[in-house]
Amino acid sequence: xPRLVSHPDEVKIVTSRFxxxxxxIDTYLELGGYASARKALAEGAEWIINEMKASGLRGRGGAxxxxxxxxxxxxxxxxxxxxxxxxxxxxxxxxxxDHLIFLHDPHAVIEGTIIAGLAIGAKMxxxxxxxxxxxxxxxVERAVAEAYERGFLGKSIFGSETEFxxxxxxxxxxxxxxxxxxxxxxxxxxxxxxxxxxxxPAVVGLYGGPTVINNAETIxxxxxxxxxxxxxxxxxxxxxxxxxxxxxLSGHIERPGVYELPMGYSLRKxxxxxxxxxxxxxxxxxxxxxxxxxxxxxxxxxxxxMDFDQVGKAGSMLGSxxxxxxxxxxxxxxxxxxxxxxxxxxxxxxxxxxxxxxDWLKKSLTRFHAGFGTEKDIDNIQYIAENMMGRxxxxxxxxxxxxxxxxxxxxxxxxxxHLHGKPCPYAHHPEVELV
Amino acid sequence: xSAEAMTLFSPELAARxxxxxxxxxxxxxxxxxxxxxxxxxxxxxxxxxxxxxxxxIGITPLDVRNVATYYSMLRFQxxxxxNVQVCTNISCMLRGGYKIFDRFQERLGIGHKGVTADGLxxxxxVECIGAxxxxxxxxxxxxxxxxxxxxxxxxxxxxxxxxxxxxx
Amino acid sequence: MRxxxxxxxxxxxxPNVDEKSxxxxxxxxxxxxxxxxxPAGTLLIEACRKAGIEIPAFCYYPGLSLQAxxxxxxxxxxxxxxxxxxxxxxVAEGQVFITESAEIAQAxxxxxxxxxxxxxxxxxVCDAGGECELQDMTFKYGAGESLYVExxxxxEEQKWSPVVYFDRPRCILCYRCVRMCGEGMDVWALGIQNxxxxxxxxxxxxxxxDCEQCGMCIDVCPVGALTSxxxxxxxxxxxxxxxxxxxxxxxxxxxxxxxxRSANDGMEIVRADNRDKSGINGDFLCAKGRFGxxxxxxxxxxxQPLVRNAAGVLEPTTWEKAIKHVxxxxxxxxxxxxxxxxxxxxxxxxxxEENYLLQKFARTVLRTQHIDHERTGDYATFxxxxxxxxxxxxxxxxxxxxxxxxxxxxxxxxxxxxLAWSLRTNVRLHQAxxxxxxxxxxxxxxxxxxxxxxxxxxxxxxxxxxxxxxxxLADVTGAGAFCDALGAEESLVVVCGAEFRGASLAALMRWGxxxxxxxxxxxxxxxxxxxxxDMGLYPDLLPGYLxxxxxxxxxxxxxxxxxxxxxxxxxxxxxxAGGGLQGLLVVGADPFAAHGVTxxxxxxxxxxxxxxxxxxxxxxxxxxxxxxxxxxxxGTVTNCYGDVQMVRKAADKAGxxxxxxxxxxxxxxxxxxxxxxxxxxxxxxxxxxMGQTRGAQAGEADRHAVWLAANGLEPKLSPFDPFAILxxxxxxxxxxxxxxxxxxxxxxxxxxxxxxFVSIDALLQRKDGVxxxxxxxxxxxxxxxxxxxxxxIGKYQAAQAAQAAD
Lengths: 435, 168, 806
Prior knowledge:
The complex is a heterotrimer. Chain A is α/β, with parallel strands linked by helices.
């Protein structure tokens, strides 16, 4: 069972019901659950969207797009049915926040889905969880069944004339399906290959109907933001970055775990105070600030607030909020290799630069780390990554290229230390074989 | 369609799949869950399973294969009764994921994608399973085991061996 | 241009409101500093191609769904941060694009470097070497140095069928083959499996293909990943000459480019494709067109004239002796028995010029009206009804572009593959509404907006229903809705199969002619079935369906012919068996087999057969003259939609002669002045063409002779020049006033039925004599039976079917 952690600096909004048995609907109701959905039903779509705009809530999947704005793009009139799609395909290495939300507070996701549906005029919502989360799917399915029993879902929700259905869907192992249009393809029973945009999902989405796609954390935040009032929620965070965020501290950290901290919280404090510092009192070598696709930061770069804008200014991204701490005993070549190995495995193969680029990088890094690299390889690795950036069909290519460029540029010296047949200066893992 | 009469699946699963195709705006949306549930029961996606799924959805077996081969949880060869999936992605790697993987290799005498001779265990090095803050973590079938040490490997194997002996 | 998802093509039963809304207003935008104009929404890549700006692409293929996968067509759009793919960018007013720059060249070069990383670079032995898009792009963008030092992944080549091979390492995953097979052919036999770098094109049979074997996947492959069983490792592209001609197998008349190469006994055909995608078939060729050419090399091919000797055995002899023998015997029969003593059965596989010449030879030299051919479509009735109407005959292009088509009977997917392709494409890209009415289930119902099933006698009932008899088809579900929807169509092309003939055809056409905007096409079964009919291979109709008696220029040209109707094929065979006919000339036909003539029944008649193979008729003939196939001669043919196209001599076989030359020499041997048959040289105002027609200056005759030779033509100085006859046909045959500019440029020229036909009432009194042969997807009778590749496909398909049945 995933361990829950706590720290005084935390502002528990989304996590407020964690550990309290809120997966059961009675407990959830006792803790104020479904009040926001009832209010949203009473107040109507315009009110919801205005509140969401006021909340400053930005998408928690990684891109940070303002949620209220996203909902407002959905056309009011549509010949085809509209849909809400909740992205719970949490797959970015370093990220496990949705895991806890589904485990401890599935009704918040259901309630958020209802509210999103009311905001855009949809009658059906899907909650898509990655296939590996089977036990969580069962928890969410149970919660959905409870909501149906209580009449919160179905033909007349909360006794109104409004209909809303929720279907829980399982994936079957594909990181790429986290991309919103690939997610729709997967839900339609196809290969998880992204769609050509435009048209954007808000106009032509699931089954051709207008669709809003939000990250599970975003959706779970919605009922809280409405309960607090948009402006109050916004006030918790930093400028243009409303509210809190679930940060997952992992890697070489003394107290790993998922912490809910206000947007803009200092990265240095997050590592040294909230997380208790580098494990075993070792020295910090690097931090991956927002999941494995975000470029690495050096110890001298961690005096920043963790929000979309400040991390962006530091040359990386807030991403999914997965903060991976790396100590001074770590081989950065191996870390780069393990990172690219993932993206090579997950590339859908649709476009040439991503399909061929990730494989080439993996092969080169594998050989390089095994001690068979040449000076020119370092330039080649950089050249390939640079030529993937911005050229691929979807962001996965960038997700693979960005961190690679970061590693090569910031740790070139470590790459050079692997040259001339010298063994890896760090204890490396021989099972990372030469392919 | 006489698919129901000629099904490969248990009556429970067949009934579940019958219901599954009806719940979506489009039948085909049932494809991926159907493949996964079929695999859970049969162990892998045999040609016969693929043909039946194709029939149930109303698409060609080729189309089913196109989709099925895309998803890494779906397999076309039998795995062990207990499929041990060790995450070695960054967060787990930093906290000893490879050591756990090594220990399983050593104890089971098989490598990545190997199956033990008795068919009880199979082993896989997998990508991130969403347990980064409780690393290193593994999944045995769908069960998570987290914050592992190498020393716990034997206990985990023993647990599943006894579960097997218990007749499940 | 954007393809719509299949599901949105039809809103069942709704009339098409906005058909022409595709014609969007023009917008102006800038590409590389040039102002361009195109309809709003045109894809940038298409707009640029039309303006002569080539944007490279692997995955983009006109008419197929968009992929944006290869990333080669990236361009810079002003005010847009990332490079954009031209294949998915619709043009809008005021946009500014750069399509070539250092940045773009680098992006394309890098993509090529990535592709070449694991590419085998086996260009020296690759079929595509020399005509490979990957090679061309590498040449252009100079990805010359290899940065890739990892081991390459080799995979063995796979045989997916007798004609389709897959070489995985060469594949660049452009998905053209997958889309062509699915969207274009509606076969969906190819898929994409696995993901990432392990992604692979996969056939539906696991390790083999269960499909129509059309080879379209090979055709669209930009590299050498999919190769042809009949061509692979046979030749280099630059070793071949490429001759554009017309496929010999069915009545659709697809344009085909034959790749030919010198061989010991002439020129051999090594490949067939539609290289420049021109002509009525554009991209399309079926299995017969693409793989069905090796009959020309068949061991059974006749290459020497045969004359039956005293012992009663067919014995090889020289052309001189054989022709002399025929001339003498025909001369003697005419002398002894007079006009009408010899019958002629012509061919549906020879050219229009040959058929025109054959009837002229029959009528003026043999002085007979006993002329017929193997009729597979009732074109006499068809023309009789169209007399005096303008624009009621549908060309193939009319069908391919019609907003609504009614398909009555027939089975185009099997028997008219091009028609099926064009109907599918029209439905898919232009949202045409297809109405299918058939007594059998046919594949094209999948594309149909409305389909109707009934028993075999339902066709006439349907016509009655359409003509206002509400009781007709009353018991057939959907008949009312079907007819109502049809009735709402403002313009309609009616395509009907051989189910319609004589009175049925007349009733159908009378219904259609009573409404504005209805055009007709009548299907038939072999490459020049329509041409044989048009050229008057009838006992009662002259070329252009004119009556035997009359005062048109054609009657003058045929002066001296008998003026009473002759016997049809059945009657001729009976008469020849019973002593009523003394001679029979059979050209490219096998009436003994078709009519089940008992062996030896015609032993008292003198029978001459001209054919490529020893058919049943030939085996019993007195003289057999080996002929050139359609791939070995020049002339024109007319497809079943009335489109005339040029065939050009591609292959060459020592020992054979064209039917044209044989007929002229036969006439010569009978002592006829052959100028009266073929107006070559200076004759009746027709002059030898020494280059005037193409604007050559005086004194350029030599150079013109070179041009003619290069094009397989002759200067009309020879009695064997079919174009001398073409001149006469154009003057004398109704409907054959051809557009020579188009015809000689390799396009089709459509015929328009004329006037002055035999009255329809008279036509309906006679026997239509139509016997449909229903060729299959791999079957065209005589030729396919002697084509190794088609036989191999046939066997393979049968094995597949047997396995599926298990």
